[in-house]
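Illustration: HDOD domain-containing protein.
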Amino acid sequence: MKPRSDDECGMHSAEAPVESGWHRIHIGRQPIHDSDGALVAYELLFRSHSQARGATARGAEATSQVIVNAFSEFGLERLAGPHLCFINLTREFLVGELPLPFDAGSVVLEVLETVPIDDQVIDGVRSLADQGFAIALDDFVLGNGHERLLEVASYVKLEVSGVDPDLLRERVTACRTYENVRLVAERLETEEDLALARELGFELFQGYLLGRPRVLSLDTLEPSRLRHLELISKLTDETGDFEEITEIITCDPALSYRVLRAANSAASGLWQQISSINDAVVILGTQRLRHWVTLMLLSDVVGADNSGLDNDRMSHVLMRARLCQLLSRSLGLPSDKAFTVGLLSGIADLLGVPAEDLIEHLALSNDVSVAIVEEGGPLGSVVTTARAYESGVLPDSAESGSEDLAHAYLKAVDWSMNIITSV
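Result:
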């Protein structure tokens, strides 16, 4: 498959009108190169809008939004391909007050220079390193306590532009006493900066000279905060079961899609095929799912806008999913798969994107994928029938059971409206 442009992937680099029923999310991405000029990594950055030149918010909320957007909206494989991603972490994540809901692998955790170093931070960073995470020290300087983390660091980022060369050499010398550390020259703004960094033996290079941060944007659905809270409550309730958890998720199309994305995240190390929301819940497990939902809720605080959701359009997505589920039962098809097929086809229609683009980075089972993209196979016929009934033009094969179909449609409409009015 040929590489696609950001626009073809559903990502945009310019602001455009956003219709009701969806909102636009953003993430900054700055390249990091090796000594030969090859791209080896990206640093992911918080951005509030497509024209933002810097972060307008900091702290745990901004970090949460970067993580949620990267993993459960864009997808790391779409943001960075095979390359590493550097993500800035605040104290809350370093000491375990907020969870990291992904495994070590393609992500480098950056300790921000603004984080005061104390024993709790030292212990937290060591624990993350023991779990296999690569640690980077951002904007490293001597004397602020961050040198205590050099023994567990894999990368140290040193600013070059505007820094006295002798002071920079001193910092490089201090870092070179640790064999496992790779040095990243950041804030490279001139050819002279780059030449000095090469002279001092830096392995990696980052800065405006080599590539400015680019803001990528994506149109997506906004989950209900009430559903988030309800789900977190159920996940912390020892008496809750997977069926109840799955029911809460399936009542919110946006939350459903995020959970599917989280289960399929390349960084989570999960490569199993998924047929339904229930599969995603089982694969993630309650603890990791709780971690994801907590960060989703936190990230939505900083990403909130006042546009709200178009209830009619959201109700239509839920109605199709429910109708597909009801129709599948009379045909002896798995109802959880049918619900997922109807849900994702409805989301694709709502966002106005090709279904194959929406599910490209979801490891769905073949029968589910074919049903969504081609409306093929038994599950696909259920979507075809549901879509036709919505438009008022029934296929010949459905005419004989039109009474049952009408009853199922009314039940689906009633169910979806009840869900929407309860949010």
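Reading the tokens back as a structure: Residues 13 and 400 are 50 Å apart (CA to CA).
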